[in-house]
Write a sequence for this structure.
């Protein structure tokens, strides 16, 4: 049971699944797993509508991050994460999923239409993903030095590939240092932009905030500048040099450093990237591995091609993450299903 009422969405119990209910009742319940997905700045930029036996996923562009994410690339990646959570929940409750991405060409906000397909028993792998949903969080604490087992690395690569993306492990001191330098340069460029700082500050909330979105102070790294600097400081001062130095070290020395990418760039690829991200994060969590993000060089236009070059595999890098073992962290707030559900039709 969560003590923070803004986190009550995490208290989802399987026993409440309406086994005897209609398909619409079941889908509404399964959305409780979808809303636990990660999203950029915890904007939760999704809306859902139940239509008969289908549920539709919509982009909520009122929650766009216009400076950090001007093309809504990460907004769609975040929605892709919610979609993967929904599919995993459908599998767990004994069905195949039927999912159509961008089913109406004239409606770019309608991202997916999903229904429960034939009955089917979940595999052990699918069950492990489901069990990891309530245990997954973005963990910004320092990780221990222990490296990730080779077998797990291969499985994470496979998890991304199954959803149409690729995952590149950045190994070797030279490659790591190059990516760490790009992360630091991304920090410097972003923090020098006051509009970036204003946008970030708007989504960072004190721990006693009533908000059911955004990033609470407690989710920052304990030793992080951002955890002690309030929104006023962030809005006012360029903390780029400090952030760059800290994140450079974190990138260079994390047990696992990965780039997740896709062959193409555009809405379909972003939805694939989101599903791949969520699947990879859940697979990692099933083996007690945490993750956090270092996307600065991908969000910075001039640096993204350099990340692509470093991966040396063609295609488009979408996210940079570090992986490893570390202390437990608390969940962050979520809006409830009722708050993201459009009236049924
Ligand atoms: C597409 C995407 C991009 C993200 N980028 C960052 C990032 O650059 N830095 C960061 O600290 N967290 C990043 N996050 C993590 C979110 O801040 C996090 O998912 C959100 O605050 C909710 O917290 P939770 O993951 O612990 O549930 C990103 C998440 C997603 C899905």
């Amino acid at each position: 049971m969560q003590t923070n009422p803004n986190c009550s969405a995490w208290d989802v119990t399987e026993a409440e699944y309406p086994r005897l209910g209609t398909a619409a009742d079941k889908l509404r319940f399964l959305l409780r797993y979808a809303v636990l997905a990660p999203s950029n700045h915890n904007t939760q930029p999704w809306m859902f509508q139940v239509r008969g036996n289908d549920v539709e996923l919509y982009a909520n562009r009122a929650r766009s991050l216009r400076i950090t994410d001007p093309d809504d690339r990460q907004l769609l990646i975040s929605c892709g994460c919610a979609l993967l959570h929904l599919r995993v929940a459908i599998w767990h409750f004994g069905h195949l999923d039927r999912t159509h991405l961008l089913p109406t060409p004239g409606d770019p906000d309608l991202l997916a239409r999903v229904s429960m397909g034939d009955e089917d028993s979940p595999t052990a792998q699918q069950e492990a993903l489901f069990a990891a949903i309530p245990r997954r969080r973005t963990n910004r604490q320092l990780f221990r030095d222990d490296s990730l087992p080779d077998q797990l690395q291969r499985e994470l690569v496979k998890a991304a590939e199954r959803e149409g993306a690729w995952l590149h492990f950045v190994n070797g001191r030279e490659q790591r240092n190059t990516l760490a330098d790009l992360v630091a340069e991304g920090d410097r460029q972003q923090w020098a932009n006051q509009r970036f700082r204003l946008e970030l500050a708007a989504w960072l909330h004190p721990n006693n905030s009533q908000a059911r979105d955004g990033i609470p102070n407690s989710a920052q790294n304990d030793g992080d500048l951002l955890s002690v600097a309030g929104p006023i400081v962030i809005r006012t001062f360029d903390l780029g040099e400090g952030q760059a130095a800290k994140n450079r070290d974190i990138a260079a020395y994390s047990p696992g450093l990965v780039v997740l990418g896709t062959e193409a760039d555009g809405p379909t690829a972003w939805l694939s990237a989101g599903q791949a991200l969520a699947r990879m994060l859940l697979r990692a969590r099933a083996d007690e591995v945490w993750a956090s993000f270092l996307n600065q060089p991908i969000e910075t236009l001039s640096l993204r091609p350099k990340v692509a070059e470093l991966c040396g595999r063609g295609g488009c890098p979408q996210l940079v993450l570090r992986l490893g073992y570390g202390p437990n962290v608390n969940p962050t707030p979520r809006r409830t299903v009722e708050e993201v559900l459009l009236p049924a039709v």
Remarks:
- The two ends are 33 Å apart (CA to CA).
- Residues 73-92 form the longest helix (20 residues).
- The longest strand covers residues 110-119.
